[in-house]
Specification:
Helices cover 74% and strands 3% of the residues. It is built from twelve helices and two strands; from the N terminus they run αααββααααααααα. It is elongated. The protein has 238 residues and is mainly α. Strands 1-2 form a two-stranded antiparallel sheet. The protein has two domains: 5-72, Winged helix-like DNA-binding domain superfamily/Winged helix DNA-binding domain (Arc Repressor Mutant, subunit A, Orthogonal Bundle); 85-237, Four Helix Bundle (Hemerythrin (Met), subunit A) (Up-down Bundle).
C-alpha cells in the first residue's frame, strides 16, 4: 500500500522529532528518509518541499538538509563545525574560555548587572524539568558574557549555545539529567552559579575565575567527561 502525501508529511515530522530535534540538526539523507517513511522519492521530496516553505527545514546543495530556518549570513561551514563538535570538545572549549569571561565580568560589572545575574540564578533554582534546566543554565552563562561587555565574547558564547542545541549534546545532557536528578541542577549547580555571582559582585576577578572553573569541572564530571588539566593548572597558577 502506497503512502499518500498527507501520511508522508506526518511520518516525516515524526522522523524530524527523533533524528533532528534541534535547529541546525542535519536530517538523514533522502535514501534513508525514504525507507524510514515508506514512500517514493517523489512523495518524500514533496513533503520536504512543504516543510521548507513552512520554515521547518532548509537545504544546501552538497551539504544536506537541516532543521529550522536557513541562517542569515552564516557560513555553512560553521553549521558543519557544530555538527561535528562532541560534548567533550565543547566542554573543553568552555573550560578554557568561560573562567576568563567571568573574571572580566567581575572587573567590568555595574550595579545594574547584579539584578540580572541574580535573576538568572533564581531561574535555575525554579526549573522543574530537563529542558527548563538547560535553558536556565544557558541563559546564566550567556549573561556572564554580556556583563563582560565584549561583543566577540558574547558571539563566542552564543556559538557555544548553538552547539548545546545539537542533538549529540542534548542526548548527553538528557542522560546526565536522568542519572544525577533535578536536584543536582536546581540546587548544586545553582549554588555554584551563585558563588560566581558573589565573586562578580565583589569585583573579585580571581574568585570569579576559580568559581566558574570549579563549576564547569563539576558539570564535566556529572557528564562523565575527563577533567581538564589546563583548567586545573589555571586554578593553581592563580
Amino acid at each position: 500500500m502506497r503512502t499518500n502525501k498527507h501520511e508522508a508529511r506526518e511520518r516525516l515530522w515524526r522522523v524530524l522529532e527523533d533524528w533532528a530535534p534541534a535547529p541546525g540538526d542535519r536530517l538523514p539523507p533522502e535514501r534513508m528518509l525514504k525507507n524510514l517513511i515508506g514512500c517514493s522519492r517523489e512523495t518524500l521530496r514533496a513533503a520536504l518541499a512543504t516543510l521548507e516553505v513552512q520554515g521547518e527545514i532548509w537545504r544546501h546543495v552538497g551539504q544536506g538538509t537541516f532543521r529550522g530556518r536557513a541562517p542569515l549570513g552564516r557560513p555553512v561551514k560553521d553549521t558543519l563545525l557544530l555538527e561535528a563538535t562532541t560534548p567533550a570538545e565543547l566542554m573543553d572549549a568552555r573550560r578554557l574560555l568561560e573562567p576568563q569571561v567571568a573574571a572580566a565580568a567581575a572587573l567590568r560589572r555595574v550595579d545594574d548587572d547584579l539584578a540580572l545575574l541574580s535573576r538568572r540564578v533564581e531561574e535555575g533554582r525554579s526549573a522543574r524539568d530537563r529542558a527548563a534546566c538547560e535553558r536556565a543554565d544557558d541563559a546564566f552563562h550567556q549573561a556572564i558574557a554580556q556583563v563582560a561587555r565584549n561583543p566577540l565574547l558574547i558571539a563566542l558564547l552564543r556559538h557555544f549555545s548553538s552547539a548545546r542545541c545539537r542533538a549529540v549534546w542534548q542526548r548527553e545532557w538528557d542522560r546526565t539529567y536522568r542519572r544525577v536528578g533535578v536536584a543536582e541542577f536546581t540546587q548544586v549547580h545553582s549554588n555554584q552559579h551563585a558563588r560566581v555571582i558573589e565573586a562578580i559582585a565583589a569585583r573579585d576577578a580571581t574568585a570569579a575565575y576559580q568559581s566558574m572553573a570549579q563549576h564547569l569541572d563539576a558539570v564535566s564530571i556529572d557528564m562523565g567527561l575527563p577533567e581538564a588539566a589546563a583548567t586545573k593548572e589555571g586554578n593553581e597558577a592563580r
